[in-house]
Design goal:
heterodimer, A: alpha/beta, D-Maltodextrin-Binding Protein, domain 2, two-stranded antiparallel sheet, 19 helices, 15% strand, B: 295 residues, mainly alpha, MetI-like fold, 2 strands, 75% helix
């Protein structure tokens, strides 16, 4: 009886291996990691969120011979997940994330030209593609973008009879007027210098003063006179009581909550803010404006972009077939029939021209945001030291909030970057 | 006869083998890997390179925030463990008395312990929010304050709040450990002491404390380990901000690894933390065992 059972087990195991052996010849499986942008991401890729079906089912039906092993991973876990997989020599074939420079610099990525069909490559906004270039090679393609603008509570401004500020001096005057009128019940200006997004605050103020992360040659210049002046100005807004009280721990979402509750008059936020406020049950009469800049300087909004990239896999038996499969994945994802639904569902801005027409037709406000996006500056994420700079400027801001000297903080960071 | 003797020799080890194997795979092997990584070069993307000696340890110790983080960790562990032990002990004494609703009181005490730490920290975040926080709302409605107070006006105060949440979630564990010890004390000891004229403090010092010492030892050692390794409270409430001034070692090494992508120093720090814990637990256990032998 025992022998019979053992024989049965062996036969069963062998039968299980048969499909795998056949599959190995003509089927390619792509490991894909997608970041979770919102509550619908999982449903769209793996559930029933795509007209009763999902992306994986539809892709596999349209592309026989290619299987997707797709995981939707939260932003909190994605870096841990990817790093662990890389350390175990098990990097995904396709990764959707924000950063790429470390992976490219360490030779883990394939150049985009190796797998992206030419007609699709020509469809991406060129200014977006430029953000993923290192040494004249494009290492990733954008999947979506968002742009930041100043949102203000129209009712508050009507009540106090002031115009929306366009300069730093006007911002101080308006903030004082709001403080006086509402006796401190409403914070005039939202500021986020948290560990998550303090780099955005650095960008808002330094770009609005003619400074920035890098100089005109593209070299790090975090301690320029313009930057020091800009951060000192931002800290002075906090110290003068014009902002939310705890900028080091109050995230953008906290600020958006305050704005939705009518406790904050002005906030710099992405284009999804109206949807966010509506979801929170807020009924705020809001409008957008450009970011205030220093006198004589021009403001520049911040564009935020995420990417899709493909990792090398030397163990793949047929590299050309694998590259072709990755290309088919991209073609299917960016097909307007699929991509428009994805971008509009998550409330982001598109990265390809072919989606614009359909998105504008569905929501006329998109056009204005595309204009804003056209004038945006992006973080220098293609530079290898970006992670260090990002955390460095956040630490400098947070130390400045506790009384440290801005010049000394930024000098120390610059010295670390140039040593 | 001989076979029987041999069997009694190796049989216990066979029964222990599954546990030993599981411990080796899930505890010892990962610890050894971390030790190995701490002496290896690790790239920003996570690629593991060659042996670099003590470079990661030197880099970790030279980081500007290292001293602040170590001091924070010391304060965090001492304050949470000591205060939760004292409070837990007092509550256990109260709950050991006969009173109406004792069972309900004991059940309520389990709630902070049974709820996840992330939820606890998030709830306290809402309670102490300056804007529409529960604490301010209650005080405003009662007319105790006229304007909302910023309960997190400096990083020192934020760190105190983190410690408070740590104490709040640790007290139930201590209480139940002590309570189990109290319930095992023979009531006749107290009766005899009362007849001999002993008061409350005398009974506490000479009967209660010596009898619950084993329970306190267990809860203190476990708490030192749990509190030292606690991640969710600090991460949820401040993420170590501003500039690591409210970080403890565990949250700091996470930030180093996954925000600053300095994985080498982060691994070195985790080994340092492991060794510190081993030393603390070792010293405490040895001293307690000596005292028990003296008794």
């Amino acid at each position: 009886m025992k022998k019979l059972f053992a024989l049965f087990l062996i036969v069963a195991l062998m039968l299980c291996m048969v499909p795998a052996a056949f599959a190995a010849d003509d089927e390619i499986t792509l490991d894909v990691i997608i970041c979770q942008y919102g509550p619908n991401t999982n449903d769209w890729f793996l559930g029933k969120g795509m007209d009763g079906s999902n992306f994986v089912e539809k892709f596999e039906a349209a592309n026989p011979g290619i299987k997707l092993n797709l995981d939707v991973v939260s932003w909190n876990d994605v870096y841990t997940e990817v790093d662990t997989r890389i350390a175990n020599d098990n990097a995904p074939d396709i990764l959707n994330i924000d950063v790429f420079a470390n992976y490219a610099n360490e030779g883990l990525l394939m150049p985009v030209k190796d797998y992206c069909p030419e007609d699709l490559f020509g469809d991406f906004f060129p200014s977006f593609i430029d953000q993923s270039v290192i040494d004249d090679t494009v290492w990733a393609v954008p999947d979506l973008a968002s742009a930041r603008a100043l949102f203000y509570n129209v009712d508050i401004f009507d009540e106090i009879g002031e115009e929306v500020p366009t300069t730093w001096a006007e911002l101080q005057d308006v903030s004082q007027a709001i403080l006086d009128y509402y006796d401190g019940e409403i914070y005039p200006w939202g500021i986020d210098m948290t560990t998550d997004e303090g780099q955005a605050a650095f960008a808002y103020y330094t770009w609005g003063n003619g400074g920035g992360f890098v100089d005109e040659n593209g070299d790090w210049a975090v301690n320029s006179a313009e930057n020091v002046e800009a951060i000192e100005y931002a800290i002075s807004l906090v110290n003068d009581g014009y902002t939310n009280p705890n900028p080091a721990t109050q995230t953008r979402y906290d600020l958006q909550d305050m704005f939705a509750a009518g406790k904050l008059a002005m906030v710099i936020a992405p284009n999804q803010l109206p949807t966010y406020v509506a979801d929170k049950g807020g009924e705020i009469n809001m409008a957008t404006a450009g970011l205030p800049a220093n006198e004589g300087k021009t403001s520049s909004s911040v564009g935020v972009m995420d990417r899709v990239m493909a990792f090398k896999d030397d163990s793949a038996p047929d590299q050309a077939a694998r590259n072709e499969a990755i290309g088919k994945f991209l073609k299917f994802f960016y097909d307007p029939e699929n991509y428009v639904g994805w971008v509009s569902m998550e409330g982001f801005l598109p990265a390809v021209n072919s989606a614009v027409e359909a998105l504008v037709a569905a929501d006329p406000t998109f056009e204005a945001w595309l204009d804003v996006l056209g004038g945006c500056q992006f973080y220098p994420a293609a530079k290898a030291e970006w992670d260090q700079v990002k955390q460095g400027v956040i630490a400098a801001e947070q130390n400045a909030l506790t009384g440290a000297d801005v010049q000394a903080e930024l000098d120390a960071l610059q010295a670390e970057l140039t040593k | 006869m001989n076979t029987g003797l041999n069997r009694t020799k190796w049989e216990p080890y066979v029964w222990l083998l599954p546990s030993i194997l599981l411990i080796a795979i899930f505890v010892i092997f990962p610890i050894l890997i971390v030790f190995k990584l701490s002496f290896s070069e690790i790239s920003k993307a996570g690629v593991i390179g060659g042996f670099v000696g003590f470079d990661n340890y030197v880099e970790a110790v030279r980081l500007p925030a290292f001293k602040t983080v170590m001091l924070n960790t010391l304060w965090w562990v001492l304050s949470v463990v000591i205060l939760s032990t004292v409070l837990g002990f007092i509550i256990a004494l109260v709950l050991n008395q006969q009173f109406h609703g004792r069972k309900i009181a004991r059940s309520i005490l389990v709630f902070p312990w049974a709820t996840s730490l992330v939820i606890q920290a998030s709830v306290w975040n809402y309670i102490i929010k300056a804007e529409y926080g529960n604490l301010n709302n209650v005080l405003l409605n009662l007319g105790i304050i006229q304007q909302a107070i910023n309960w997190r006006s400096s990083y020192q105060i934020e760190f105190v709040w983190e410690c408070w949440v740590g104490i709040f979630v640790t007290v139930p564990f201590v209480t139940f450990c002590v309570l189990s010890g109290l319930q095992s004390i023979d009531g006749s000891l107290y009766e005899a002491a009362t007849m001999d004229g002993a008061g409350f403090w005398s009974k506490l010092r000479n009967i209660t404390l010596p009898m619950v010492r084993p329970s306190l030892t267990v809860s203190t050692v476990l708490n030192i380990i749990y509190v030292f390794n606690s991640f969710p409270i600090v991460y949820t409430m401040t993420k170590g901000a501003p500039a690591h001034k409210t970080d403890t070692m565990i949250t700091y090494l996470y930030m180093l690894s996954f925000y600053e992508r300095r994985k080498g120093p982060a691994t070195a720090l985790s080994v340092i933390g492991f060794l510190i814990l081993c030393i603390c637990a070792g010293i405490y256990m040895v001293s307690v065992m000596r005292k028990e032998e003296e008794l």
